[in-house]
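Title: Prediction job returns without error message
Component: structure pipeline
Severity: low
Priority: P3
Assignee: unassigned

Description:
Job completed but the reporter wants confirmation the result is attached to the right record. Sequence as submitted:
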Amino acid sequence: MPILEWALWQAGVTAGLLGVWAELRGLRNSPVGLRNKIRTAIELYPCELLFVHRDAEGQGRAIRITEINDTIDELRQSGITIPHVCAVLVRMQEAWLLIDEVAIRTAVGNQYGRVQLQLPRLHEIEALHDPKEVLFELLTTASEFSGRRLRKFSCAKARLRITSLISPDSESYLHSRPLRKSWRRS
């Protein structure tokens, strides 16, 4: 959700947004297939604009966009019409989470840690071969855990926390853009 909010903010949409993640995995009869997932999401989470997220997963961006658009066209034929945006990640979402050292440290519960973190430079992030591995290494390093605490540490849970900690008013994200009050997080 934060990544989509950032994209909207970059496009100049700054007010009137209420984004909701359509969580379908916990449903008793979880939908299978893109068509059923979109249909269920629209039924359970009515919206004015639908973002359809798919990872490229080696298929390529164009193939995934075609898949989404074809599925939406099928749904239109059955009477379901909703504006949509194809959100196709070519690189893993973890690449987006490598921009803010404070968020990484806070996500592991060690905001004032002293160990040096070697975050990739902004212009290098999209070229990383495995951003998930880089992020998990940074999270482990930032935790400063060892022994049993390190074995119990969950990089996956810390990764989820980062998404709520990074915001467009982050210095590394803004690149000196003016801070918009409506985006401040408490």
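Comment from assignee: result matches the submitted record. The longest helix spans residues 61-77.
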